[in-house]
Automatic annotation (TrEMBL):
<feature type="domain" description="Methyltransferase">
    <location>
        <begin position="420"/>
        <end position="541"/>
    </location>
</feature>
<protein>
    <submittedName>
        <fullName>Class I SAM-dependent methyltransferase</fullName>
    </submittedName>
</protein>
<dbReference type="InterPro" id="IPR025714">
    <property type="entry name" value="Methyltranfer_dom"/>
</dbReference>
<keyword id="KW-0808">Transferase</keyword>
<dbReference type="GO" id="GO:0008168">
    <property type="term" value="F:methyltransferase activity"/>
</dbReference>
<dbReference type="Pfam" id="PF13847">
    <property type="entry name" value="Methyltransf_31"/>
</dbReference>
<keyword id="KW-0489">Methyltransferase</keyword>
<dbReference type="InterPro" id="IPR029063">
    <property type="entry name" value="SAM-dependent_MTases_sf"/>
</dbReference>
<dbReference type="GO" id="GO:0032259">
    <property type="term" value="P:methylation"/>
</dbReference>
Length: 682
């Protein structure tokens, strides 16, 4: 104990924060003040611009303030001083000048696990009699909180108990550890401390009972508490490779899991652990560090910390292929497990090809500019990484898009008139508006949704929990519904604005925009439909008068450039137009329909909408198509087409729409309602 020091650790930090005077500071504070690069977690900041040494100093200050409040309750002067030293050094490895950090690394200080690095920095600085105690407290500080989050093993604190017992009786040692953990955790958030303080005490008790046993599934649950999946759902996902990952993690601690994983699904997280288990064979690796991946998945946008959705979507696709035992395309993205041998640490991340990395960065920068450049960049990203299958990929506009989808509820109410039976399946439920509508407008029905997109399933599961809905959603293939539901098991199957997405995105026999995809989808539905059951299709439609032409006069400057770019990017079919004047074109009626209903959505949805062909049949073609597939085994109960409410209003300010003769013309019908009933077994 150094009882001669009159200026406390708290005084030093407080003086610095008030005066910003960096002379005559103790070494531990100099490390933070003079840091030339910020090394800290992204978890508790709203913008990457907030990364600063000042935040680290503020955190240390808060820990010392909390300690000061505990000074007269239990702590002796010696105990108070010991904990003050520990708290002062606990963040030291996050600071230091570039030269200091280089020197520390050369000496073997593990700066990647900052508690270990800080302990070695303390050891170099300090010559006191209780050096082993303080070294151990710094080295193990925060591990109890990390254990409660599932990141570390309880056995990582074995050395802590042995050292504490050489200085204090068990009762005193436990109380000291509890106070230390309160300072560390409450400085992050007092609410967090209130939530975990009982768990901290029980964990300390377990430590002093020398009980280092671990429940693997419980550890995974704690690691992924923020994920939407239930424990039973997690067990199903883990079932195939649980033993491999259990053995792999039994001697490893994890760093930065939550801030790197919170935008991904549990399936993605599990896939990363499985990939790591495949890649890392050395028995000496003790640390799995997710910091690089955490940085890859974040960037600043409009002054806020954002998930890097471009990189995220690419990673999700890669992990989806791995989880489903599909061949991995490593042309532009690979999983990386980079070993840092001196410290038995492996950094987990993804590596992108030069062109892939450049395109991701271009998308980020183009997003800040907006407009067509951003749209073109995201179209290129879809192409390079093969993201076109994810029909729900709207990047930062995804929330707005789902809101827009949900606002169309009135137009979807017409579906209710044709519902039959008690088991209703919504294929491709999107934002969940139809699921909600079915639940609110019917009673005693089993309402189900099925979708191939992980993003949609996660969003709907969160919506179900937050809003206490009774409907259920599962992940499955719309072209093979029998894999998810038994034959003759569903009364009504609904395709609301989804057939055109299957047609546009799913390659059938190697080809997208293939009518055979529609045939496969309807045959799949027919197989699980009960006799007497119904398929209800609400989707895009083309005009029977294919030879008709329409004139579009643009009222705004962006209209013609939008059309020119759209005609280049659209892959469903060739879009034709003839210039009539500087702001006027003539187009086939069905090309005008296809273009205008993309133009309605505006530039932010362009990258998605340009990949879809909304109209794929005329009414006459649709009727013939159904009859050709099902013949007399199915009856078309209803086939009508109409202009969906809202298009006229949205386009009035943007265009004039005219016949070939220049007369005002109504917009072409956008939507059809088709009801097909499966024949009863005779």
């Amino acid at each position: 104990m150094n009882s001669l020091i009159h200026k406390t650790h708290l005084d030093y930090v407080q003086d610095y924060l008030e005066r910003k005077e960096s002379s005559n500071l103790p070494s531990w504070l100099q490390y933070l003040v003079l840091a030339e690069e910020v090394h800290q977690n992204f978890e508790h900041i709203d913008s990457l611009q907030e990364l600063s040494t000042n935040r680290v100093i503020q955190y240390v200050y808060r820990t010392l303030v909390i300690l000061e409040e505990k000074k007269d309750s239990f702590l002796t002067d010696e105990m108070y001083w010991q904990l003050a030293v520990v708290l002062s050094y606990c963040e030291a490895a996050k600071g230091g000048t570039a030269e200091q950090r280089k020197n520390w690394l050369e000496k073997g200080y593990n700066l990647m696990a900052h508690n270990e690095g800080s302990a070695h920095i303390f050891w170099k600085d300090y010559l006191g009699y209780d050096k082993p105690l303080l070294f151990t407290l710094i080295k193990t500080h925060g591990l109890i909180g990390q254990y409660l989050r599932g990141e570390t093993r309880l056995s990582a604190s074995r050395e802590l108990v042995e050292t504490m017992r050489s200085y204090y009786d068990d009762k005193t040692a436990k109380e000291l550890l509890n106070i230390l953990n309160e300072c560390i955790i409450a400085a992050v958030s007092n609410e967090l401390w209130l939530n975990v303080k009982n768990d901290v005490r029980s964990t300390i008790e377990k430590l002093f009972q020398q009980d280092f046993s671990e429940d693997f599934e419980n550890r995974i649950d704690r690691l992924t508490v923020s994920f939407s999946e239930t424990s039973s759902e997690k067990k199903m996902i883990m079932a195939t490779q649980m033993d491999k990952v259990r053995v792999f993690l039994q001697n490893k601690d994890l760093w930065y899991v939550e801030p790197s994983m919170h935008d991904l699904s549990f399936t993605d997280f599990w896939a990363i652990l499985c990939l790591a288990a495949d890649e890392i064979t050395s028995p000496h690796i003790a640390h799995l560090n997710f910091e690089t991946l955490m940085k890859q998945l974040h960037y600043d946008y409009k002054g806020q910390k954002h998930s890097n959705v471009y990189r995220k979507r690419v990673i999700e696709k890669f992990l989806h292929e791995y989880s489903n035992d599909q061949p991995l395309d490593t042309t532009h993205v690979t999983f990386k497990a980079d070993s840092y041998d001196p410290f038995n640490t492996v950094f987990l991340s993804f590596e992108f090809s030069d062109v892939g990395e450049a395109l991701i960065q271009f998308c980020v920068e183009a997003e800040k500019t907006g407009g067509m450049i951003h749209n073109q960049a995201t179209v290129l990203l879809f192409d390079l990484f093969g993201l076109r299958r994810d029909a729900y990929d709207r990047f930062n506009n995804e929330g707005d898009y789902l809101t827009h989808m949900n606002s169309s509820v009135d137009d979807k109410k017409v579906i209710l008139d044709f519902i039959k039976g008690d088991t209703i399946l919504d294929v491709g439920p999107g934002g969940g508006v139809l699921l909600d509508l079915l639940e609110s407008e019917t009673s005693g029905k089993q309402i189900l949704g099925i979708d191939i997109s992980e993003n949609v399933i996660e969003t709907l599961e969160a919506k179900k929990q937050n809003e206490n809905h009774s409907w259920s959603v599962i992940k499955g293939n719309a072209l093979s519904l029998v894999d998810s539901f038994g034959p003759n098991s569903i009364d009504t199957i609904i395709y609301s604005s989804i057939i055109h997405e299957l047609y546009s995105y799913i390659p059938f026999e190697g080809k997208c925009f293939n009518q055979q995809t529609i045939k496969a989808a309807l045959e799949s539905a027919f197989e699980v439909l009960k006799p007497g059951g119904r398929m209800i299709i609400r989707d895009g439609i083309m005009s029977d008068d294919k030879k008709a032409k329409r004139i579009i006069r643009f009222k705004t400057d962006d209209g013609l450039p939008f059309l020119i770019q759209y005609a280049k990017d659209f892959k469903g079919r060739k879009i034709s137009y003839e210039m009539q004047s500087d702001n006027e074109v003539m187009m086939p009626i069905n090309d005008s329909m296809e273009f205008l209903y993309t133009y309605t959505w505006g530039t932010e949805s362009y990258a998605h909408e340009v990949n879809e062909q909304f109209g794929y049949f005329t009414p006459t073609e649709y009727r013939a198509f159904i009859q050709d597939i099902f013949g007399e085994t199915a009856e078309i109960i209803k086939l009508e087409h109409y202009l969906q409410e809202g298009y006229t209003t949205h386009l009035n300010e943007k265009i004039d729409f005219k016949t070939e003769d220049g007369l005002p013309a109504p917009l072409p019908d956008s939507t059809c309602l088709l009801v097909i009933e499966k024949g009863e077994v005779k």
